[in-house]
TrEMBL record:
Annotated HTH gntR-type domain residues: 17-85
Listed SMART domains: HTH_GNTR, UTRA
InterPro entries, A to Z: Bact_HTH_transcr_reg, Chorismate_lyase_/UTRA_dom_sf, Tscrpt_reg_HTH_GntR, UTRA, WH-like_DNA-bd_sf, WH_DNA-bd_sf
One family name in Pfam for this protein: GntR
Ranges annotated as spanning the membrane: none
Name of protein: GntR family transcriptional regulator
Keywords: DNA-binding, Transcription, Transcription regulation
Any one GO molecular function term: DNA-binding transcription factor activity
């Protein structure tokens, strides 16, 4: 058995499995063997990269997957710890912002802003939002990250008339849900559809994945308490980094 934090056998570049999956397996093996016990802190990331022979980006992808699986828990500024069995790491079917989901998971959210602009609504956008074609829309396009690992590409449109003054808002850290809530337009419910697709070259580059790899694409219309449509979003999740938890019940027939 390897000593705590010493991983063997080493990662093999000639194996068919991606390097990050091999890293996930090696860390799991350490935990399952008891070498890394519940509550124990993993070695620093620089040391882990050296021991495993992988880059920081690859390591972060492996660690984030283990957090989503409930195996690890991050502590901002302190490192990564072996988690407890009852950690909730699924993406809830409750309506919550990306920042709220990250907080529930114990992860640090951030964003890479691609576009912040105001533009006229197309015919399809106008129909979806219940506004006239050409109505000014606030357009926000971001890559969403957890612990510096890209999880999704999030494009959201809000009727510009509903947006408060956002001068000076840093959307790399700010929550659009919170901004709408502060304006009295907190999204209270949403209609969503999810379907599987393949990542095109542009999306693959922004999510640091391979072109053609699977993604889950969500289209969502959010409503305020008064049933006004406050936003429409297209969110494309890396397929191996997103797991939705939901429930079903038999209704009356």
């Amino acid at each position: 058995m390897a000593n705590p934090g010493e991983f063997e056998p080493p990662i093999r570049v000639d194996y068919p499995d991606p390097l990050w999956i091999q890293a996930v397996r090696l860390i799991r093996d350490q935990i399952n063997s008891g070498s890394l016990a519940e509550g124990m802190r993993l070695p620093p990331e620089r040391e882990l990269c050296q021991q495993l022979g992988i880059s920081r980006v690859t390591l972060r992808k492996a660690l984030t997957q283990l957090v989503e699986d409930g195996v690890l828990a991050p502590s901002h500024g302190r490192g990564w710890y072996v988690g407890t069995a009852n950690q909730d790491r699924d993406w809830s079917n409750d309506l919550e912002s990306f920042s709220e989901t990250a907080k529930r998971m114990g992860l640090e959210p951030s964003s890479e802003v691609v576009t912040v602009e105001e533009r006229p609504a197309s015919l399809d956008e106008a129909e979806s939002l219940g506004v006239a074609p050409g109505t000014p829309l606030f357009h926000l396009d971001r890559v969403r990250l957890l612990a510096d690992v890209p999880i999704a590409r999030d494009e959201t449109l809000v009727p510009a008339a509903l947006m408060p003054d956002i001068t000076g808002v840093d959307f790399e850290t700010a929550s659009l849900f919170s901004i709408l809530a502060d304006a009295g337009l907190a999204p209270e419910r949403a209609e969503s559809t999810i379907q599987a697709r393949a990542a095109d070259a542009s999306l693959a580059e922004s999510l640091r994945m391979q072109e053609g790899e699977p993604i889950l694409e969500m289209h969502q219309i959010a409503y305020a308490a008064d049933d006004r449509k406050v936003s429409m979003s297209r969110i494309r999740y890396a397929g191996d980094r997103y797991r939705l938890r939901t429930g079903f019940a038999r209704g009356a027939h």
